[in-house]
From TrEMBL:
Enzyme class (EC, first level): transferase
Keywords: Cytoplasm, Phosphotransferase system, Transferase
Name of the gene: ptsH_2
Any one of the GO BP annotations: phosphoenolpyruvate-dependent sugar phosphotransferase system
GO MF annotation list: transferase activity
Name the record gives this protein: Phosphocarrier protein HPr
Domain HPr per the UniProt entry, residue ranges: 1-86
InterPro entries, per the entry: HPr, HPr-like, HPr-like_sf
Compartment list: Cytoplasm
PANTHER family to which the protein is assigned, alphabetical: PHOSPHOCARRIER PROTEIN HPR (PTHR33705), PHOSPHOCARRIER PROTEIN NPR (PTHR33705:SF2)
Major subcellular location class: cytoplasm
Record-linked NCBIfam families: PTS_HPr_family
Organism of origin: Clostridium oryzae
Gene3D superfamilies membership: HPr-like
EC number: 2.7.11.-
């Protein structure tokens, strides 16, 4: 399963939102990936997320594959759509 979402928070995917994303993604057994441009990274890797350089207004695709993929994808999409609580 995957879903495209836009980054709405002012500072993009910097350290705090990236760590929030990893914290939520790590709760799930599913394989979580973020696809941005030509890059596909592990959604449970803070260094991977930071290396993407995603800024406000950019779109990313969140991909989840595994036994709890639907629940994981829904929570991660909600996190991004709510601006990571910032």
């Amino acid at each position: 399963m995957e879903k495209k979402v836009s980054i709405i928070n002012e500072s993009g995917l910097h350290i705090r939102p990236a760590s929030n994303f990893v914290k939520v993604a790590s709760k799930y057994k599913s394989n979580i990936e973020i696809i941005y441009g030509n890059s596909k990274i592990n959604g449970k890797s803070i260094m991977g997320i930071m290396s993407l350089g995603v800024t406000k207004g950019n779109e990313i695709i969140i991909s989840a594959k595994g036994e709890d993929e639907e629940k994981a994808l829904n929570e991660l999409v909600e996190l991004v759509e709510n601006g990571f609580g910032e």
